[in-house]
Write a structure and sequence with these properties.
The protein starts with a helix and ends with a helix. Helices cover 55% and strands 4% of the residues. It is built from six helices and two strands. It has a two-stranded antiparallel ribbon with strand order 1-2.
Length: 113
């Protein structure tokens, strides 16, 4: 599965397995050996970076080849906050803000003691 996913992903960038090996500095024999051997994590990471995907995708742990995005957000923005595709109601956002404010105040109070 690993080698098939690498091939499939490489095709999207008009690359062959030999191209992947050359661009990552990994020997072609090593890349082809991944048909039956487990690659070193640093080598697989190099391939994943070249192919703009994750090692989890290449290893078959997920079917989503896209790279993770920064899911951070600010509760101070006026933008809607989503959770599993649903808008988070203001009452929940207010609760979260209250908890965070209390935590922040507690943290600041502890610093001055």
């Amino acid at each position: 599965m690993l080698l098939e996913r690498i091939k499939e992903r490489a095709k999207k960038f008009d690359l062959t397995l030999s191209d992947v090996a050359e661009k990552t500095g990994i020997s072609p024999n090593t890349v082809y050996s991944w048909r039956v051997k487990t690659p070193r994590s640093d080598k697989l990471k190099q391939v994943a970076e070249l192919l703009h995907t994750t090692t989890d995708y290449l290893n078959g742990l997920t079917d989503d080849p896209s790279l993770p995005t920064d899911d951070s957000f600010s509760l101070d923005d006026d933008k809607p906050v989503m959770y599993h595709g649903y808008n988070v109601p203001d009452k929940y956002l207010d609760m979260i803000r209250g908890l965070m404010d209390a935590d922040i105040k507690e943290g600041k109070a502890n610093k001055h003691e």
